[in-house]
Amino acid sequence: MKHRVYLSVAVGLFLVTVLAQASNEATIDQWGFSNEATVDQSNDLAESMSVTIDQTGESNSTEVHQKDSSGARATVIQGLSGNHALITQQAGTDDGSDGATATIDQDLSRNSRAEILQARAVGSSVSLTQGAGSDNDTRIEQDDTRQTTAKVAQENVDNRADILQKKAVSTESAISQTLGQDNQASIEQQNTEQVSSKITQEGEQNTAKVVVDTTNGASEGTIVQTGNRQQAQITQNNGSSATVADIIQLVGEDNIAEITQNNAVSSEARIAQTGSTHSEAKISQSNSTADGVEITQTDASHQAADVQQVGTARSTIIISQRGSTGARTTVDQVNVSDTTALINQIDSAGAVAKIDQNDVSNTAANISQTNSAGGIASIDQSNVSDSNAAINQISSAGATASIAQRNLSHSSAAIAQTNSAGAIASIEQTDVSDSKATINQYDSPSATSKIIQHDLSGGVAMIDQISAPAAIAIIDQTGYDHYASIQQINAAEAVARIEQSGNSHWASIMNSRSTAAEAMIIQNGSFHKAEISQINSESAHASIEQSGDKNHAKISQMNANASRADIYQEGDLNDAEIDQYGADNEADIAQIGNNNKALMTQNGIGGYAMIEQTGSGNYANVTQHGSDHYARITQAN
Questions:
Q1: Which residues, other chains included, contact 537 with Cβ-Cβ below 8 Å and sequence gap of 6+?
Q2: What is the distance between the alpha carbons of residues 181 and 199, in angstroms, rounded to a whole number?
Q3: Angle 101-103-107 (CA atoms, 0-180°, nearest 5)?
Q4: pTM listed for this prediction
Q5: Which residues are within 8 A (CB) of 82 and not within 5 positions of it... i.e. 6 or more apart?
Q6: What span, in angstroms and rounded, lies between the C-alpha atoms of 250 and 260?
Q7: Per residue in 482-538, pLDDT tens?
Q8: 192: burial class by Cβ within 10 Å (0-12, 13-18, 19+)?
Q9: Which value, in Å, is the radius of gyration of the alpha carbons in the chain?
Q10: Which of 475, 540, 480, 470 is nearest to 504 (CA)?
């Protein structure tokens, strides 16, 4: 049996109640002002319910209540301002109502309110549209639903849209706000499974917020904003698989984007900001695994990107900033494992990039700066194992790079600077084992390099400086299997120093075409070997100082104007060799104790040579060719 109600009035108040029919239909047409329409439909035997209400005018009010039915349909159409529409749909059984639909369309609306409430719905859809209006308020609430969709579309300014889904399974929700400003959109999903949500906003000073709390399955959240001074926030909790969050902000300034993910599996968080001056992007993840983080900021200035991870595993962080003058990026990781953090800054003068890692294992930290004059890059790692840190700066004049590692094992650090005038590089490692530190500087006038490794075992530190006129390189290592090498080529004003303490040292300094070059090696205790070679070295000076055990030393200076060479060795299997060719030579070898041997050759101009050896199997040899020779050998046994 079918029951139909058709009403058409200009002004009035109508209440329609339809009960106990197999198929119920109600239609109301109203025009004018201050109309009210209420329809109640209730029947657990009904195969379908249908309500259509059309109101034209202002300050109209409509309520539709559908209960205990499958396939319910409710449509409300309102025009002009100050209207209110409410639709409620509720199934009477746990099986829910199949295929229910609720639609509210408010056109040319201002100060209007629309609400749709659904409970126990399966396969239902909700649509709410407010067109060409302002100061409108909408709310959709779905409770205990499955395979449902909820959509809100609003145009113009000062609108508000809220979607709340509770105990929802396989649901989709979307809010679209266009041609406006000061709009607010919120989607909240509680105790849900397999849910997705999307907010799209155009204009200025809009706010979008997505909050998802899942009990099982995947969740997806997306916010797309175009314009200035936008704010976007996505929070996802307790995702068991495929937790995905995307925020895209286009063509604006002073935009803020934030993603928070907690207790999630296979989570991905992505923020993209284009042409967004003074914008900020922030991603926070905790107690999650298999994470992917990506922040992209392009074609704007003074952008900020921050990523924080606590208790995560198997994650990858990629931050890219291009054309972002004054960009700032920070990555903070605590108690993470099997992770990679990568910061890439291109054409970003004055950019700052920082990675902090604490209590981490099997991690990699990489910072790359290209065409970023005055860029600052720093990596700080504490309590790390099996981790790597690398900084690469290209064509970034005045750039600064520093790596600090503490309490680490099986870790390495590397800095490369190319075509970066005035660049400064520093690596410092404390309480390290099996570590390696490398600094490369190419075409880098005024370059400075520094490596310090303390309380380490198995060390190795290398510094290369090429075409670096005012170069300074320092390596300082303490404890066990050291090796250190400094190379300076075309490095005017170069200074190099290696200091190594306790056990298996070996050190090498090589300097080519090095005006005003100086080189020094100091090694204490055990298997020393040291070698300094300076070629075409105007104003060169070289010195090697080695103490106890298996000493060996070699200094060779070729075409070394105003040259001087010093070797001092004390204790055990000594050996020493100095070769100098040309200019104002001076050379000293002093060896005290054990199997001494000393050789010295000076070829031309200035000369002076001295060998002093005290104790054990002494041997000495001095050869000087041409000009103002003087030689002195003192041996005691």
A1: 511, 513, 514, 515, 517, 557, 558, 559, 560, 561, 563
A2: 14
A3: 170
A4: 0.86
A5: 58, 59, 60, 110, 111, 112
A6: 21
A7: 989 999 888 778 899 999 999 999 999 998 887 888 999 999 999 999 999 999 888
A8: buried
A9: 38
A10: 480
